[in-house]
Specification:
Elements lengths: L4 E4 L6 E2 L3 H14 L14 H11 L6 H18 L3 H4 L1 E2 L3 H7 L3 E4 L5 H8 L24 H14 L8 E5 L2 H9 L3 E5 L6 H7 L3 E3 L5 H11 L3
Parallel strand pairs: 1-4, 1-5, 5-6, 6-7
Antiparallel strand pairs: 2-3
Helix pairs in contact: 1-3, 2-3
């Protein structure tokens, strides 16, 4: 079976939710600690576990495992409360839905988001139905994004009785950390310049293929094949 596992990043690759994720963490921290976040960690391409660790550390809050878990629960609840704003402030990025409809292979996500937050972000834009979310990996599994690739491969192997080693796994994302995760694990990678990084920066990071966005549906499929080494 010559199947491909395509793992999509969520934020700034498939959707833009106008900073609602950060707002959820700010609200969660305020509720847990009775004071606002004053020092914001970087978020682009990072996992929610790493972000939560930094939020606690930078803002001088207790940062044990129980504290981390409590912030996770509070962040999920806060995002659920903010979800009604997604149709107003959020959007699917150009070409995202058509790409998911037409790309061949097993499609899931490799995202820094908590699973529930990823589901909520994707839901209003008709994207979830084209993804097997049980075959992906999420940002609470490990602080290091590259370690999520093995998690997703294992989940997909169990579901499809197929190995997705090497470049039979292709990541699609918008940051150098997406590129790094693929390169460190032998996966293929298509980078899209729909976030804060330019095409030149993504090429310099080592992406196998770089696209400006996902609007050329046929071009996305071709890019994934090229990232596979075909």
């Amino acid at each position: 079976m010559d199947e491909v596992l395509v793992l999509w990043d969520v934020d700034h690759t498939l959707v833009d939710v106008d900073g609602l994720g950060r707002e959820a963490y700010d609200l969660a921290f305020l509720r847990r600690h009775g004071r606002p976040v004053t020092h914001q960690p970087p978020m682009a391409g990072r996992t929610d576990r790493a972000i939560a660790q930094d939020v606690l550390r930078l803002n001088r809050a207790p940062a044990g495992e129980a504290d981390l878990e409590a912030l996770r629960v509070a962040a999920e609840a806060a995002f659920e409360e903010l979800a009604h704003l997604l149709p107003v402030r959020g959007r699917a990025l150009p070409g995202a839905l058509d790409a998911l409809r037409t790309v061949a292979g097993v499609q899931s996500v490799l995202t820094g988001n908590l699973r529930r937050i990823a589901e909520v972000k994707l839901g209003p834009f008709g994207l979830v139905e084209h993804l097997d979310l049980d075959a992906g990996a999420y940002g609470w599994s490990h602080a290091v994004r590259a370690n999520l690739v093995g998690v997703a491969r294992s989940a997909a192997r169990q579901r499809y009785q197929c190995d997705f080693d090497g470049r039979r796994t292709v990541l699609v994302g918008d940051t150098p950390l997406d590129v790094e995760a693929a390169l460190l694990t032998g996966a293929g990678v298509v980078a899209v310049a729909t976030g804060r990084y330019s095409t030149d920066e993504l090429r310099a990071a080592g992406a196998h293929v770089v696209l400006r966005d996902l609007s050329d549906t046929a071009g996305v499929g071709e890019a994934i094949n090229r990232a596979r080494g075909r």
